[in-house]
């Protein structure tokens, strides 16, 4: 008899001892201050009660719902309509009410930050050709225009292919610490302006840097694992030399120097993350592979974070 009285008194909220107060026992309590949530729950509850009276088979037992609602120690049970017959929005709202939360429309995985892609490889493998095509097929990509003290080749445009500057101007940029990396290549300076990278990363663009092997090794030390390093090769040494000859941009002296250097440079392959073979006549495949690499990097759980 005493036990029954105790049970009865516990079922009435006004007789609850402090440790069983609704605030402590009801996980929905924190949501009571959210009028939107309450009206959602109420409207869902009303709609379901109406529905229950029409077709009780579609709903979780009415008895179960009412018995738990009487007990303030248990969270209110919101009946969930059958997904087969109910409107999807009703099921959605009922799930929210049952769990006591609102499903967020925020992205589950944040948008990946911009990447820095360093493309390198021996002279004549097709770095310029691959990058030119990549820029055509891929949006949100900024190709960093390198500053150089070398003379302009026929057809090259200042500010598009390179920023052509005098040796004195280049030395001044070094002094002002305006370059991420620079090197003396075949007697000419080449360097990467920092400001350009910052500016385009802020806009959310991926950054493509085209550097020779010497430059890539320096960047590896500076950027470490925060950038992606891609080594571009031709399918064979023979193909690479033929491409350089066919390009008709080199004197016999620079041709000899480039070919000799290329042999040496192939030894650095292991220091790169990826290798892309730019096969003769298959430029498109090389570009596709490069795109896949970028996409895969963007899908990584542990994203690379870069600060310039
Ligand atoms: N897949 C390919 N098939 C045929 N020819 C190609 C291919 N890729 C590039 N070429 C050609 O090979 C030559 C060398 O290419 P490119 O100038 O792009 O090389 P690079 O690596 O940028 O050389 P460098 O470092 O000397 O500037 C160019 O004439 C280019 O049109």
UniProtKB/TrEMBL annotation:
**Annotated coiled-coil segments of the chain:** none
- Example of a GO biological process term: regulation of developmental growth
Q: Any idea which UniProt keywords this protein has? A: ATP-binding, Kinase, Nucleotide-binding, Transferase
GO CC term, one of those recorded: cytosol
EC assignment: the record states 2.7.4.8
Segments forming domain Guanylate kinase-like = 114-295
**GO MF:** ATP binding; GMP kinase activity
Keyword Transferase on this protein?
Answer: yes
* Organism domain of life: Eukaryota
Which NCBIfam families would you find in this protein's record?
guanyl_kin
Q: Which HAMAP family match?
A: Guanylate_kinase (MF_00328)
Question: What family is it from?
Answer: Belongs to the guanylate kinase family.
What this protein is called in its record is guanylate kinase
Which species expresses this protein natively?
Answer: Olea europaea subsp. europaea
